[in-house]
Amino acid sequence: MVYGYARISRKQQSIERQIRNIKSYDENAVIFQEAYTGTKINRPEWNKLYKKVKSGDTLIFDSVSRMSRNADEGIKTYFTLYERGVRLVFLKEAYINTDTYADSMKDKIQLIGKDEDEIFKGLNNYFRKLAERQIHIAFEQAQKEVDDLHQRTREGIETARINGKQIGLKRGTKLVTKKSVEAKKLIEQHSKDFGGTLDDITVMKITGLSRNTYYKYKKALKEQ
After folding, report:
1. Domain 2-142, CATH homologous superfamily name and number
2. Which of 51, 73, 75, 138 is the least crowded, having the fewest Cβ atoms under 10 Å away?
């Protein structure tokens, strides 16, 4: 069986991009999806899928951050599933797919039943540790990207709040305020319509704009 797992942190976010990416990889993938924080591995739909997958199955994620945002838990889950014979595919981090890991371990030194085996065991363990470290770094990077996004969002909100006064800039007869400039920057940065990852409701909350003002700014950005 081929399964896909898609996760968003809040119900206001859109999960469609993840599902679309998974289906592009394998249109027959059976999708498990949920809105739940990635900081916890004990998630309802994930638990169902985790118990269901068996040796020979394939499990597809859009990114390692969808499986776990905690590096230690992520790598533990990775190897537990790998040792159960489950094939893991990470679309954004293909270099740590279990197929790639398995290929790297094919070249391990074979034991020959002699005294040298202790040395070979040490070398094999060293190669495994190198591969594990690469996988660990991928999970750490996923967490860092999320942390950085949250930090930029907080800074953007604070900047918009501090600079909420009007500035003497005019375009035709329209008065441009610092608040509107900062709000439009946040829209361009986060809205899916401009290459971001967040839906309109979430961006509205980040900018603090009313619905009418938000869509007015969004329309102005599209017309630029």
Report:
1. Resolvase, N-terminal catalytic domain (3.40.50.1390)
2. 51
